[in-house]
Amino acid sequence: MFITFALITLLSALGMLLQKNIIVAGLFMVGAFFGVAGLFVLLANPVAAALQIIVYTGAIMVLVLFVIMMLNSHEEEKAQSPRAIQRWLSIAVVAALAVGAVKLVFASPGLKALAIRGAAMPEAMTLQKVGLTLFADHVLGFEVAGLLLLAAMIGAVALTKRNL
Amino acid sequence: MDKLASLLHTTPAIVWMALKIVIVFGGVMSLAAIFTWVERRGSAMIQDRIGPNRAALFGKIRIIGLAQILADGIKMFFKEDLIPTDANRRLFWLAPFLAFVPALLGFAVIPFGKSFMSGGHTYHLSVLDPGNGMGMLYPLAIGGMAVYGVLVAAWSSNNKWSILGGMRASAAMVSYEIGMSLAVVAIFMTAGGYDPSEIITAQGHLPWTWNVVRQPLGFIVFFTCMFAETNRLPFDFAEGESEIVAGFNTEFGSMKFSLMALAEYSHMMTASALIATLYFGGWQVPFVKDPSVMLSVACFVLKLVFFAWVFVWIRWTVPRFRYDQLMRLGWKRMLPLSMVNLVFHAWRMSQGH
Amino acid sequence: MGVVVKKVELSWLDSTYVWPVLKGMAITFEHFIKQLFTPTSKRYTIQYPEMKKEMPEGYRGLHELKRFEDGAIKCVACFMCQEACPARCISIEAEEFSDLNITQGFEEKRPAQFKIDMLRCIYCGMCEEACPKDAIWLRKDYEVAAYDRLSMQYGKWDLMNTYSKVDGKDRITQDTTPTVPRRTIVM
């Protein structure tokens, strides 16, 4: 199961990178999101999977595709002349990031605890638990994020509306 | 069940699962097919016409035109499968499936009857058993995926009308999703859970304790949003004969078109199942405290068919909205209304009701 | 000057949309029920092959050549209809058929052939107007169709026998000699 979803995610991500047509790339990204949602379900967190699909694929990707479709139609973008330094630099940065991420994961206390206790299936996440975590433990962060989004929304409305 | 399982060398659970899948999806699909006929016949009756009543089996058995479904299917099957020259071929192939699969999948969590015990096992009458942790979030998530069917169909056919239709339809679907979700959240709150079976048990068997009486405002919002979600009149912005021909399915013909049409009707079925589950007590039989399994299933199917009929009925009553009217209704009426509904019920719960 | 659009002020009940939609649904449901329980024969739709529309008075359909009670054709082959026809679809060949003199009250001319090309005919009814003997007239029937062009050329016997079954007459394929004088001529 894990292999299936991981393959879906990785292959979709690869397809997205290699695809020249921007809309098809977007659809590949949707596929990758689905793979990630499947992984969430395997991690006994169906709520995160549902939210992943609702928020990312159902709303954000739709809007992104929407804007792309509005702006250009069927022309495939021509690749810009690649510069060697850009390519090597990006590869180096990505490699550094990857090494850092792997190191971080291996150094995490959770993994060590897992090694000691053994992998037990964690209790399934429910919406109630998510709510409790958000509104009891992290209420400040939640409110700040909400305020930030509100400000962004008002800003967007103010920008698009010419005559208030 | 056990005998059948041992005959097939599997466990009863798997047999039961396969059985459920076949029954649910086969049932929904055939209901959707029947509703293509109901739609045409019903609209004809509403407009004082007669409608398709002539298609007959073997040229003789004319069962009030029901064979029209078969005739349509055969016709669609043998039509030429055209793909426009400049269309994106692969996406053009994919689009009908993207429209059809989410429309059908949303049905998976909905319990269509009372759970029953047999031989030490509890059998739940829904494809995904309750307590899967996904609950009502699942149909919402899958419902959101329906946008892709329209978008991809519109874009891949490389046609200006299609793109315009797909654009405005997907915009409408995305904006109505918000009001719908907020209305559903109010139900999660009052039911104290987000699993459909919990929501159904919380509603009880008396019609005045159903959510439609408890939250009439939420019901109106949800019902309206369902019309926008399923792309049905008065909100079917994917098409529009006078402005953009047939909208997103202008270029689709033969089996692809019939899959698109079937997707619309399956989506309608799923939507009416959601309405029945969330606001009309699901499989609860009015005034019967402990109904038998068959009775509960029958009651659910009755509710389902009734709401599907209401979809048809409203389609032939109300004309299509203008686009700006739709957006105004969605953002300035539905969203605040569902917000008010949510806050009101939160306040009531905080008062200890 | 542009067109002044009158804005309709909605009452608060109407501006909720819910009540008007319910009203509309009541209307459509009334129609639905009414139509559902109307027997087929009373519906507006005419179920064509089984039911046929009663054509109005003066409708001009397929032609018929009339005959007398004894079966003799009324037409005297005077060529008036052929001349009057604007579409030139009638062609007649006349023949003499009897020794009975016109002075004795018998007509001695009749068409040997009487062809109407139904593909050219415009159903204007001029032949009916022109006929001095009321021998040709346009009936109310409208189902004039065939699989090939040749069968749209109606001959004399086609035109005489088309309605024999409907009117309860015998089919005839031969001209009968009249036995009674058709008119009395006042000399």
Could you walk me through the main structural features you see in this protein, from its secondary elements to its overall organization?
The complex is a heterotrimer of chains A (164), B (353) and C (187). Helix content of chain A is 79%, strand content 0%. By secondary structure, chain A is mainly alpha-helical. The radius of gyration of chain A is 20 Å and the shape is globular. Chain A starts with a helix and ends with a helix. In chain A, 18% of the residues are buried. Chain B has one domain. Helix content of chain B is 65%, strand content 2%. Chain B has helices at residues 2-7, 12-46, 68-78, 89-105, 137-156, 160-191, 196-203, 211-214, 216-229, 241-244, 254-279, 293-315, 323-350; strands spanning 116-118, 121-123. In chain B, strands 1-2 form a two-stranded antiparallel ribbon. In chain B, a hairpin with a 2-residue loop joins strand 1 and strand 2. Chain B is globular, with a radius of gyration of 21 Å. With 187 residues, chain C is of the alpha+beta class. Chain C is elongated and about 95 Å long. In chain C, the strands form two sheets. A three-stranded antiparallel beta sheet of chain C has the order 2-3-5. In chain C, 23% of the residues lie in helices and 13% in strands. Chains in contact: A-B, B-C. At the A-B interface, helix 2 and helix 3 of A face helix 5 and helix 6 of B.
Short description:
The complex is a heterotrimer of chains A (164), B (353) and C (187). Chain A is built from seven helices and no strands. Chain A has 164 residues and is mainly alpha-helical.
Features:
heterotrimer; A: mainly alpha; Four Helix Bundle (Hemerythrin (Met), subunit A); 3 domains; globular; B: 353 residues; mainly alpha; 13 helices
* Beta-strand percentage range of chain A: under 5%
Major β-sheet profile of chain B: 2 strands, antiparallel
Radius of gyration of chain A, in angstroms, nearest whole number: 20 Å
The percent of residues in helical segments of chain A reads over 70%
Can you lay out the helices and strands and say which pair or pack?
The complex is a heterotrimer of chains A (164), B (353) and C (187).
Chain A lengths: L1 H17 L3 H21 L3 H26 L12 H24 L1 H9 L9 H11 L1 H22 L4
Helix pairs in contact in A: 1-2, 2-3
Chain B lengths: L1 H6 L4 H35 L21 H11 L10 H17 L10 E3 L2 E3 L13 H20 L3 H32 L4 H8 L7 H4 L1 H14 L11 H4 L9 H26 L13 H23 L7 H28 L3
Antiparallel strand pairs in B: 1-2
Helix pairs in contact in B: 2-11, 2-12, 3-11, 4-5, 4-11, 5-6, 6-7, 6-9, 6-13, 9-11, 9-13, 11-12
Chain C lengths: L11 H4 L2 H19 L26 E3 L14 H5 L5 E7 L12 E9 L8 H5 L5 E3 L14 E2 L1 H6 L2 H4 L20
